[in-house]
């Protein structure tokens, strides 16, 4: 049995093998929990005034252009962002969506309802479906993440549109690595950078790493939606990427409450790998087999992420969270069948490739050849 390789935060359930950078201090508390405590000490009314002043600097005075760009998936967080930017602060955003082609039914309905609910212009980019399938296969083999194209698309296409439309302000929701791992303090007002995009969001791979594979035969002209604008174009327009969570108190649960007031719907069917029905409806595999690969690589999954957030918000106890993780994190979800047909692969090949990405500090084989790891309920 594995001993001492993986430790767990004593406040939430996040493991030291976290997919995002974390620190666990001498008291056994992770950096994500420590950072989340800052939320209660912030004067959010003052932060909202800062946000309004920031956007005002970039506002189109004569109405000849958009005031900012909001990348949207049609999820609860997209609705919340538009609610704040347009309906609370009164600015005119352009919505930009990268279409990854794997919507859930509710996710697709929410996306189209969003435009009408807020009365916003909406720029929609859909790459070749054949290319998306090839990128699914290639990136699964390269990095154990079939959704690289979606990570790259949502953090590239909005900047392409910003340059083309001369709109210098791009608004994302939360800084993912700060929200999940406490990478930064809320007092840092951290902004989007190309380095963050490449090294973290895109797993260290860029568009040119997809060129030249003998099986997928991807060419440069197919990758235009994944090529970040040139530095000189970014400087010419003065493009900045801002995280709204630095200015508005951020909670996925609260965002869903606001979104429902505009007609947003959560998933009617429960997911197999998490208890939440309000997250990641833009991709039917995000809570499913894509997240199962996270479990294969790092030993935990989406249920752990959601439990950690709800523990920090005081919505459940750590022991309740541990029981959820025990029941859900390991499940190999049924949507695998759909993805295998989608890309033309069999399950045996999937398992063989997935196993090559197992972190040796997390996993080892027992005497019977079964993969085993340290589990939080065995340490608790």
Strand content: 5-15%
Order of helices and strands: HHEHEHEHHHEHHHEHHHHHHEEH
Instruction: Output mean pLDDT.
Output: 96
Uncertain runs with pLDDT below 50, 5 residues or more?
none
| H/I helix tally | 17
CATH topology of the largest domain: Rossmann fold
Sheet of most strands: 3 strands, parallel
Would you state the CATH class of the largest domain?
Alpha Beta
Give the helix level as a range of percent: 40-55%
Shape: globular
Rg, Cα atoms, Å:
21 Å
Count of domains: 2
The CATH architecture of the largest domain: 3-Layer(aba) Sandwich
Task: Write a structural description.
This protein has a three-stranded parallel beta sheet with strand order 1-2-3, with helices on both faces. The chain is globular, with a radius of gyration of 21 Å. A hairpin with a 5-residue loop joins strand 6 (364-365) and strand 7. The chain folds into two domains: 31-40 and 279-379, no CATH class; 42-246, 3-Layer(aba) Sandwich (Rossmann fold), CATH 3.40.50. It has 380 residues and is mainly alpha-helical. It has helices spanning 31-36, 44-58, 76-88, 105-118, 129-143, 148-154, 157-165, 176-181, 194-201, 231-237, 252-260, 289-298, 302-312, 318-328, 335-343, 347-355, 376-379; strands at 68-71, 93-98, 121-125, 169-172, 240-243, 364-365, 371-372. Helix 3 crosses helix 11 and helix 13 (302-312) runs antiparallel to helix 14 (318-328). It has 17 helices and seven strands.
List the helices and strands and how they pair.
Blueprint: H1 31-36, H2 44-58, E1 68-71, H3 76-88, E2 93-98, H4 105-118, E3 121-125, H5 129-143, H6 148-154, H7 157-165, E4 169-172, H8 176-181, H9 194-201, H10 231-237, E5 240-243, H11 252-260, H12 289-298, H13 302-312, H14 318-328, H15 335-343, H16 347-355, E6 364-365, E7 371-372, H17 376-379
Parallel strand pairs: 1-2, 2-3, 4-5
Antiparallel strand pairs: 6-7
């Amino acid at each position: 049995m594995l001993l001492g390789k993986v430790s767990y935060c004593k406040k939430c359930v996040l493991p030291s093998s976290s997919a995002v950078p974390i620190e666990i201090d001498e008291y056994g508390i992770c950096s994500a929990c420590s950072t989340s405590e800052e939320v209660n000490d912030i004067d959010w009314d003052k932060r909202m005034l800062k946000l309004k002043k920031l956007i005002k600097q970039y506002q189109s005075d004569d109405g000849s252009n958009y005031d900012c760009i909001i990348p949207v998936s049609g999820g609860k967080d997209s609705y919340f962002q538009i609610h704040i930017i347009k309906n609370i602060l009164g600015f005119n955003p352009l919505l930009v969506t990268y279409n990854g082609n794997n919507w859930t039914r509710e996710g697709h309905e929410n996306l189209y309802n969003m435009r009408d609910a807020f009365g916003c212009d909406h720029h929609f980019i859909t790459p070749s479906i054949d290319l998306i399938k090839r990128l699914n296969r290639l990136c699964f083999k390269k990095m154990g993440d079939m959704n690289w194209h979606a990570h790259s698309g949502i953090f590239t296409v909005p900047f392409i549109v910003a340059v083309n439309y001369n709109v210098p302000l791009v608004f994302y929701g939360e800084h993912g690595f700060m929200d999940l791992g406490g990478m930064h303090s809320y007092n840092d007002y951290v902004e989007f950078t190309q380095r963050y995009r490449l090294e973290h969001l895109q797993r260290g791979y860029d568009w040119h790493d997809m060129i030249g594979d003998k099986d997928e035969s991807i060419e440069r002209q197919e990758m235009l939606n994944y090529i970040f604008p040139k530095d000189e174009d970014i400087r010419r327009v003065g493009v900045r990427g801002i995280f709204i969570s630095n200015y508005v108190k951020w909670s996925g649960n609260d965002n869903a409450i606001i979104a429902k007031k505009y007609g947003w719907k959560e998933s009617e069917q429960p997911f197999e790998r998490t208890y939440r029905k309000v997250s990641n409806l833009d991709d039917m595999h995000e809570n499913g087999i894509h997240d199962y690969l996270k479990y294969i690589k790092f030993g935990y999954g989406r249920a752990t992420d959601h439990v950690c957030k709800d523990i920090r918000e005081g919505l459940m106890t750590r022991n309740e969270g541990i029981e959820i993780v025990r029941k859900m994190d390991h499940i190999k979800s049924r949507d695998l069948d759909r993805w295998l047909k989608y890309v033309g692969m069999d399950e045996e090949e999937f398992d063989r490739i997935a196993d090559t990405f197992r972190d040796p500090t997390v996993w080892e084989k027992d005497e019977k050849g079964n993969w085993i790891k340290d589990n939080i309920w065995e340490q608790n």
